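Design request, tokens follow.
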């Protein structure tokens, strides 16, 4: 293994695995620590955890014996760019694009330096875009670390910026950020000639399919509104779920009655729906109830013969993958930037989509790609 990666949730792991695979590294996604090093045969290994709300960067620095790391959340092909320390989604600041309403990890500030400073004991530094493009990155990174600011947020707005950052930190033991930096890290290995990869050949899989959407992002709402034009849909009512008026058998009966084609089951709601749920129930308790429900539903549907599962939402994805119990996945074809089809070792196809990723017709295309992944 050339590169080991720790993802803070399952959609992030899928996203990073996709980037590394597209960049030429033979990549395996794992849902936990492998039993042994010999159990993993890959050039890049991505471990999917559920650590998004947990501050871990400083602990990893200590464990690896390093005094500095960079933070690079840029991913231009999905509209994520950092400029003057602020994270933009397309042309909108992070805290104005809908993530401010995330039920578990709301983002109220687009200044990654301030966000990181509020979570960390160490000082937070900054690599401005001007220094990066003036070939002064090495000097700036060193100066920030020596000044007691070892957690360094990097500006980057284009893929070439990510390549430049990756070159500067090629020998650093720890790098943090979004999946976009993976392209630059893979390029480092290709330059040295140690990375060789060939995609596996798999049989087609056109077995029964289902979409499970738990995300309440703006794009997820558009995607769920689009999906029923092409497949039967079942909306999960939070009140019915919390009062046990809705159970797994009811949803499975809908699936069986809806024919052989794909179906969509969703708890996705708009802002008003979210506020109604929050007013009636503790939002953490409600979120866990929905996650557990989707996980149990996915497990039962796979046991009954479903072979293609498409999931919308990071927390929902974690619950589904955990319930299904598959430990390793190969990275299949890309559906949208940052979202590949995943193939378990038994041939089960799973797609994990972060809330705001994908276009309105994402679920239609994901189901088509999963047949040939």
């Amino acid at each position: 293994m050339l590169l080991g990666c720790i993802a803070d949730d399952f959609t992030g792991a899928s996203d990073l695995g996709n980037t590394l695979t597209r960049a030429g590294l033979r990549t395996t996604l794992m849902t936990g620590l492998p039993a042994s090093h010999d159990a993993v045969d890959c050039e890049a290994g991505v471990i999917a955890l559920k650590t998004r709300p947990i501050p871990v960067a400083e602990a990893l620095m200590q464990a690896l014996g390093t005094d500095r790391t960079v933070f690079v959340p840029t991913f231009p092909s999905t509209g994520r760019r950092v400029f003057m320390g602020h994270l933009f989604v397309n042309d909108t600041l992070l805290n104005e694009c809908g993530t401010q309403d995330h039920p578990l990890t709301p983002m109220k500030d687009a200044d990654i330096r301030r966000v990181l400073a509020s979570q960390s004991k160490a000082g937070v530094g900054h690599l401005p875009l001007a220094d990066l493009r003036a070939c002064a990155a090495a000097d700036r990174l060193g100066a920030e670390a020596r000044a007691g600011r070892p957690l360094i947020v990097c500006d980057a707005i284009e893929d070439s910026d990510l390549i430049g950052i990756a070159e500067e930190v090629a020998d650093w033991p720890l790098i943090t950020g979004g999946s976009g930096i993976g392209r630059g890290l893979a390029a480092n290995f290709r330059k040295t000639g140690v990375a060789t990869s060939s995609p596996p050949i798999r049989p087609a899989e056109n077995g029964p399919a289902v979409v499970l959407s738990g995300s309440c992002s703006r794009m997820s709402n558009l995607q769920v509104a689009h999906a029923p034009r092409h497949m039967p849909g079942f909306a999960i009512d939070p009140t019915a779920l919390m009062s046990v008026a809705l159970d797994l058998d009811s949803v499975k009966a809908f699936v069986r009655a809806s024919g052989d084609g794909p179906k969509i089951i969703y708890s996705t709601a708009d802002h008003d729906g979210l506020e109604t749920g929050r007013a009636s129930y503790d939002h953490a308790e409600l979120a866990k109830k929905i996650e557990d429900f989707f996980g149990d539903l996915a497990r039962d549907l796979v046991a009954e013969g479903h072979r293609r599962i498409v999931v919308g939402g990071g927390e929902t994805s974690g619950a589904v993958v955990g319930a299904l119990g598959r430990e390793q996945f190969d990275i299949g074809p890309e559906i949208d930037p940052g979202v590949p089809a995943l193939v378990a070792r038994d041939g089960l196809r799973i797609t994990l989509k972060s809330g705001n990723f994908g276009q309105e017709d994402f679920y239609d295309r994901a189901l088509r790609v999963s047949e040939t992944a």
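Comment from the thread starter after seeing the answer: thanks! The longest strand covers residues 328-336.
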